[in-house]
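Q: Structure for this?
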Amino acid sequence: MFVATSADGYLAGPDGEIDWLEPVNAMADAESYGFHAFYATVDALVMGRRTYEAALSFPKWPYPDKRVYVMTNRPVAPRHGERMVFGAPDAVLASLEAKHVYLDGGVVIRQFLAANLVDDLTISIAPVVLGGGVRLFEGGERKHALELVGTQTWPSGLVQLRWRLPGVRT
Amino acid sequence: MFVATSADGYLAGPDGEIDWLEPVNAMADAESYGFHAFYATVDALVMGRRTYEAALSFPKWPYPDKRVYVMTNRPVAPRHGERMVFGAPDAVLASLEAKHVYLDGGVVIRQFLAANLVDDLTISIAPVVLGGGVRLFEGGERKHALELVGTQTWPSGLVQLRWRLPGVRT
């Protein structure tokens, strides 16, 4: 999992906005805060319906080189070869035949966290307090210890924390 | 402000418990993750009623060398020279004649954050997901940019993030 949050733990503002990330994105290095290196290790993406629709609205489909699975109970016709999936996170994951899955979108991330199926957690914290929005951690996750793998900071004020979840399937 | 939270942003568990901090506290250095240095710069503490009662329950009063103000609308007789205060955060702060105030307790911290009276924010993140409890950021805080001052990590897996709030009274 590779996400950006505000200092108060939001993935997006109250209306889904991520414009508060613009200042740090404008100062991103060529590696986009390690995203390119992370993305290169991934063989499939699983995202929720809202994240999918946001990606569709981009000028260019952002994932031409990856298998994309959209978790939704309202399947639509794929436009870029993406597949619609539906069900419990463990069943979905088992059906993917993927080694390293990139989870995207708050709902999907929370479902997989609750099912204890997330094995690494990279959270990039932007230097801003939002005061409201879509939380990464809504509550109800399983209580578990993390293992700190490392941290990194950038001149933009972004701080990246990397954790592993011990005892989770690898 | 100098607080410890879980990776999912809780100051305490659902029943106020902070036992999840024991593993990192057991591995603390002599400086207690920088707390002693921070505490030395403080000339007064402002805490809420619950934090005060927790402090009273300790075997020894933890703040013998500092002025302590308890924000409460149910004042009780002081037992260690502490003073009971009540009112809006800005009025309380103005009455203290203190330069560097240490805010303690979720309610007090949130009130002062909402009133834009917090000028530095040190959050030590413990390597654990709790899944529920008393949040540091409950929502409703003013949206504002932070300035990252620094980060530090310890072998226990604790990560400390230090921010300043630009434009706040100093």
